[in-house]
Amino acid sequence: MTARxxxxxxxxxxxxxxxxxxxxxxxxxxxxxxxxDLCWAVRRTGDGDARPSGLAPEVAVTTAAEWSPGFLRExxxxxxxxxxxxxxxxxxxxxxxxxxxxVSAISHYGPEAQPxxxxxxxxxxxxxxxxxxxxxxxxxxxxxxxxxxxxxxxxEVVEEHFRGKPETSGTALKLAQxxxxxxxxxxxxxxxxxxxxxxxxxxxxxNQTIRLTHESISGKAFGQGAMFAARWxxxxxxxxxxxxxxxxxxxxxxxADDLAAATPAPGGGRVRWxxxx
Length: 277
Hints:
The protein has helices at residues 3-10, 21-32, 69-74, 92-97, 114-121, 134-149, 170-178, 183-186, 220-233, 243-262, and strands at residues 12-17, 36-43, 60-63, 79-82, 101-104, 125-128, 154-161, 187-191, 197-205, 208-216, 239-241. It is of the alpha/beta class.
C-alpha cells in the first residue's frame, strides 16, 4: 500500500449540512484541515449560485429537497456535521443507518426532534451541543474543576454581547447551571457595541482572583470545535454525547497520562493510571 493511499484511509470523510453564514465558514475550516476531506454539503434551497464560493470542485453540493439515501451511497462519509436547522433531525436515522456519525451544532431541538435523535443514537454516535466552540466547553469543564478546588469561592458569570442582543446568553445560563449558581443573581449581562460574544467565570477568594474567559472572534471557531468533536466521535460507540463530555474525557485522559509519567511505582518504574472516556 502506498503512503498516499494509506493517508486517504486515515482521513475522516465529512458531510456538511447547512451552508449559511456560519456553515460557509465551517466549510472553509474543513477544507483546510489536513486530516479531513469535505466530501459534500447540503444547502436548504437552490437559490443563488449553484456552488458557493470557496468550495473545491470535488465537493458535491445538493439541496435538502434533492437529498436522498442514493446520494449517501454515491458519496459515503464517516461523520456528518450539521449547521442547518432543527428540522434536519428527521434525516438523522437515515444517516445513522448508513454508518454516519453525527455532530450537531443546532442551538435548540424541540420535543418533535427527540424521537429522531434517539433513533439515530441507537445506530451511531450522535453529539449535540448548542455552543460547539472548543473554548467555551473547556471553560465549562475547567470551571467545574476550579469549583471543586475552591468550594468556598464567590463565583460570578459575566457575559458580553453586541448591543442589540436582547436575551441573556444561553451559554451563560448553561455555565451557571453547571456550577449550581442562581442565574438571576450570579449572571451579569453587558450589551455594548459590536462584541461577538465573551463569557467569563470569576472565582473570588480572599487573596486571589481566578478568571476563566472565552471570547468569540470569528464564526470559524464553530468549525474548529466541530472538527474536534468529529475526531473524538469517530472513536465512540453508538449513543448520545455532548461537547462537554468530549472535552472532559480528553481533559481526564491528559491528566491521567501526566500522572502516569510523573508518579514512580514501588520498586521503580511508573504507576499506570486509567480514566473513563
